[in-house]
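Attaching the record inline, Q. Sequence:
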Amino acid sequence: MIKGPRGWPGEDNPSNELTNIGDLTYNLDISIGCPPQNFSVLLDTGSSNLWVHSALCNLSSSDCGNTSRYDSSKSYTYRENGTSFSIRYGGGNVTGFFSEDIIWIADSILKCVTFGETITNSADIAGADGILGAGPYELSRGRIYSPIYEMYFQGVIDKLMFSIYLTHNQTEDNGGEIIFGGCDPDLCDGPITYHKCVQPFLYWMISVQNITIGNLTFCEEGCNCLIDSGAQVIFGPLEDVEKINDLVNAVLLEDNEYTVDCSSVASLPNIYITINDTVFEVNGEDYIIRQPDDCLLGVMGFEMGSSTVLNKIWYLGDVFQRVFYTIYDIENEQIGFCKAKQP
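Structure, as predicted:
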């Protein structure tokens, strides 16, 4: 475990190493039940529930056949709940029911934690057995406290906060870490700045003054950005991102995925995001996801209905959070950023 200097809230707090799957998703290992059943779950600050595939998962309507599935009949600490739930994600939906059991996370044991067992799943979580939602409590389905809140309530951590450090190396080893209850300033290459979340505190969302790339400026009158570790890239309104695609000569690959000429990455314009008069710079190498045969553009467009609170916002996903170590302060409803030291 990486420890911060004495007196810093990162000292002696539990941490979990993360698995980096091709710079596309970041998972952590947890266990449920006794004897423990092991799972690799996607770390997602854009949702607030823990769920894993159930042994009762409908194999005909879900991609759960090749994943680890929780079997309550094999855990003597299991407690029935049975309340049904449904969660909609950007890439699909899951349905299932709640159960209770002990959770093993970051070398700690949490008692009587409520989590979801999914029966159907159309969400795109390739390489994971479920999702660990790390969003605010008010976002949770069923008003269920996530394991991070339970760690605080059960005395495992002293501060209701966590921090996420992501690597940019496309290897499973040393994919980064999540520190529960604090952060580690030794992972910072510069000062930490804190920014209040948009109220009401439903999402890890902050106000942004503007976003610029090359000769393009977006959010000129300000807009909101959702800090989402479950998002692989930077997402923006479709009409804005189409202008970025033209600027960098991106070529459509499929399903709104664009590529750029790998030889041009070094000359791509930087993205500048201004938050409370602090400018956060993301360069071309940072927002390109290198694949064996091409270079994916880590900026994608989306369309949402005008009635949603999330309309016209930007999502700062893993592309941004690999560059900036992120501290999620639940108690004070704020987010901290610092330039992340590279391994």
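Confidence is low (pLDDT under 50) at residues 1-10. The chain is about 5% helix and 45% strand.

More tomorrow.
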